[in-house]
Every structure is written in C-alpha cells, then in structure tokens.
Amino acid sequence: MKMSSYKNGSGNRIPRDSVTLSNELYRIKIEDVIGEEFLTNEEKEERVKKSDLQLKEEELRDYEEKLKEHEQKLQMELEKFETEKMELLERFRKEEEKYERKKRQEYYDIREFMWENAMKLSEEIVGQKIRTEDFSMPEMFKGLIKKLPIAFEELTITVHPETLECIKKDNSKESWMLENINWKLDYKLEIGEFMVEEENEYYDYRFSSIFNKIKGDIRNLNQQIRREGE
Questions:
Q1: How far apart are CA 192 and CA 160, in angstroms?
Q2: Which residues pair with 185 in a beta bridge?
Q3: What's the predicted TM-score (pTM) here?
Q4: Per the structure, how many domains does the chain have?
Q5: Which of 9, 91, 122, 189 has the fewest Cβ atoms within 10 angstroms?
Q6: Which residues of 55-73 are buried (b: 16+ CB within 10 A; e: fewer)?
Q7: 3-state DSSP call for residue 3?
Q8: Local structure of 163: helix, strand or coil
Q9: Per-residue pLDDT tens for 4-42?
Q10: Containing domain of residue 197, as a range?
Q11: For the domain that residue 197 is a member of, what is the CATH number?
Q12: pLDDT above 60 for 204
C-alpha cells in the first residue's frame, strides 16, 4: 500500500482517493519502525544480534545457491564424461572387432595358401616319381584293384601304353590278376593314371581328377571354417 503525501488545513486526515495499492513487497526491519534512540541497551544488542543473524542467513543462502550451481555443473561434467567414456569404449570395441576380423582373415588366407602350395608340391612329387619310376606301379595297381568290389575278370582298365608296358614287367606271383584284366590304351592319360570300368561302376584314377577332388574338399572345408568364424 502506498500513501500519497497530502497536507491541508483539516489536520492529519488522509483522503480516500490519495491511497493506492501496489503488488511490490517490502521487508520491514525493526530499525525502520522504531528509531534506535528509543531502544534500551539490551534492545540495541538484540538488534545487532538479529542483524548479524540475518547477514549470516543471507550468506548461507548465497553459499547454498553457489553450491547448487556447482553441483549442477559437476552433474553436467559427469554426464559429459559418461558419454565420452561410452563413445571411447564403443570405439575400442569396434577397433578390437576389426583387429580380430583382420587376424581371422590372415589366418584363413595363410591356411588356404599353405593348402594350395601343399597340393602343388604333391602334384609335382607324384609327377616326378612317375617320370623317374621311383615307385612300383604294379604294386600300386594291385593294391587298388584288391579294394574294388569287382571281380578281376569283369574289369576294363584304360591306361597309357607306357603304363601297361611297366605293369606287364611284373613277375610276382600275383601278376596273374593283372593279366586277366581287359586293358584299353589311351595316349591322353598320364603315365600312372588309369580308369576302371565295369557294367555298373566307374572309377577315375586320373591324377587331375584325384587332385581336383582333394582341392574341392579342402576348399569346402576352408569355406566352412570361414563361415563358423564369422
């Protein structure tokens, strides 16, 4: 409430239209109401104590506000730290997965390289042994034929002429089984290769077919290992 200053000869009466209302708030202190000259010594001391208490309360409120702002700032820093930590962990995880994939890929590549070169070396060794006759061709034939579920007399075997010539040199007691076979000649075959036929069965012992089958099995195995590692 505000009161306009008004003076006239009618005394201390305040006209009604001189009073206005306001929403503004005012803190009224004791010293604003009672002058210090009207207070006793005890009241003066009490007033000083209350003033000190109000001052400390204000300081405490200011400290609480600053503490609250500091806590909010710390909370924001903590959230930022957690976000950066999660991003860093995710980056580490992706780098680790990338490194593991690279290691697996290198392992698969080395494995396939070793198999490929092992097969090449095997083909060269087989070819070298055949060219130098560094093995017993009749013994090889007899060992394979014995495992076939077919009577010797029903077999038709196609070979290179030099292969047959080498087989016929066999003078062992089991050479009779080779003589009872129906032989066919094919110059397209390599020395040492042969194909076995009978009425319902066919066996391909060409080196290229044998090695191609082995290579196919190895390739399928390597692909399976790659799939299982993904």
A1: 7
A2: 159
A3: 0.40
A4: 1
A5: 9
A6: eeeeeeeeeeeeeeeeeee
A7: strand
A8: helix
A9: 444 445 556 666 666 566 666 655 555 555 566 666 777
A10: 137-229
A11: 3.30.2320
A12: yes
